[in-house]
Design brief:
This protein is α/β, with parallel strands linked by helices. The chain contains twelve helices and twelve strands. The chain has a six-stranded parallel β-sheet. Strands 7-8-9-10-12-11 form a six-stranded mixed β-sheet. Helix 4 packs antiparallel against helix 5 and helix 5 packs across helix 7. Bound molecules: manganese (II) ion.
């Protein structure tokens, strides 16, 4: 067993009060990892709090429904141990910032982002893992901690969503083996999970997608495609944040396109970019140029400025990147 896993075992055995949090704007991996680890520690009789300052996207409500611990937005008792799952940076942890000032707080950082610099006292980071859920499954198996159907469902959902249901380049033999184990041992039904996550779209989110696709542009000899989501569209078709996450994939899915970008106006003069790429380009490097980060095939950043200014700036940067 590796030394990080041994250290994790030692901390779990010696402490009682745990607080687990995932990243802001949580996704399937963040929520699944949070709920899986929470349920295991709860079953071990630990005092567990699950905290996320942002709402859980309703598409993942089915995971929380079966959880012995609910996710809350804050906490009362100060914990002994804070476990951050799927968070590349401390600043992205969905918890009130005053937590970092607490003395004697032991921080465990479990993540698979290549940009994670290791902000915890104990860092369990594996950038080869397709999802944080995959690392947690490995941890639970090695330490022989109690996995049940609810934990398995949360982990399966974490891995399935972070791999685009096994379509993205991060899907490895280990990923499929992990999921095969969950399906076989805990009777997880892949078709049901896919239906829960993908076939429960709101009417507004599909109409909004139509608006976004109307803005689609192609440039740089067809290598780059981008689309725009502004506040006016969002006012017309209000949706949850999470519901717009997949829109960028349409730009990326066009034949010949190497980089797909979605420019989303969060508020006036603040634009969030989602980057997606084929194997030709590592977009985490492009996003980090603007203070963001993520993975080689999927990354994000936020840039201040009006939509036309930001689009212009980014397209110039991409043009230089390609050396045109
Ligand atoms: Mn993840």
């Amino acid at each position: 067993m590796n030394s990080q896993f041994q250290e994790f075992q030692r901390i779990i055995a010696s402490k009682e009060g745990f607080l687990i949090s995932c990243h802001v704007h949580p996704d399937g991996d963040g929520i699944g990892s949070l709920l899986a680890l929470g349920a295991v520690l709860f079953k071990m009789g630990k005092n567990v709090r699950l905290v996320c300052t942002d709402d859980v996207p309703s598409v993942y409500g089915f995971l929380e429904d079966n959880s012995p611990v609910a996710i809350s937005q804050g906490f009362d008792e100060p914990p002994e141990v804070l476990i951050c799952v799927d968070c590349a940076e401390r600043e992205r942890v969905a918890i009130s910032a005053d937590i970092w000032n607490r003395r004697n707080l032991f921080i465990i950082n479990i993540d698979h982002h290549i940009t994670n610099a290791g902000f915890g006292h104990l860092n369990i980071i594996d950038s080869n893992a397709a999802a944080t859920g995959e690392i947690i499954l490995q941890l639970l198996k090695e330490l022989q901690l109690p996995v049940n159907h609810q934990v398995a469902l949360a982990l399966y959902t974490a891995i399935a969503t972070d791999t685009g249901f096994f379509r993205y380049a991060n899907t490895s033999a280990e990923t499929l083996e992990s999921c095969s184990y969950l399906v076989k041992t805990f009777q997880i039904e892949p078709a049901k999970v896919a239906e829960q996550v993908h076939e429960q779209k709101s009417y507004n989110s599909v109409r909004l997608l139509g608006e976004v696709l109307n803005t689609l542009c192609l440039g740089l000899d067809g290598k780059v495609a981008w689309s725009v989501l502004d506040q006016q569209m969002l006012a017309k078709y209000p949706v949850e944040n999470e519901e717009t996450e997949s829109y960028v994939n349409y730009a990326r899915s066009i034949e010949g396109v190497e980089i797909g970008i979605l420019f989303k106006e969060l508020r006036p003069n603040q634009i969030k970019l989602s980057w997606r790429s084929t194997s030709a380009v590592d977009v985490s490097k492009l996003a980090s140029n603007f203070g963001g980060g993520g993975h080689a095939r999927a990354a994000g950043c936020t840039i201040n400025g009006s939509l036309p200014e930001v689009i212009d700036k980014v397209l110039h940067f991409v043009t230089d990147f390609y050396g045109y």
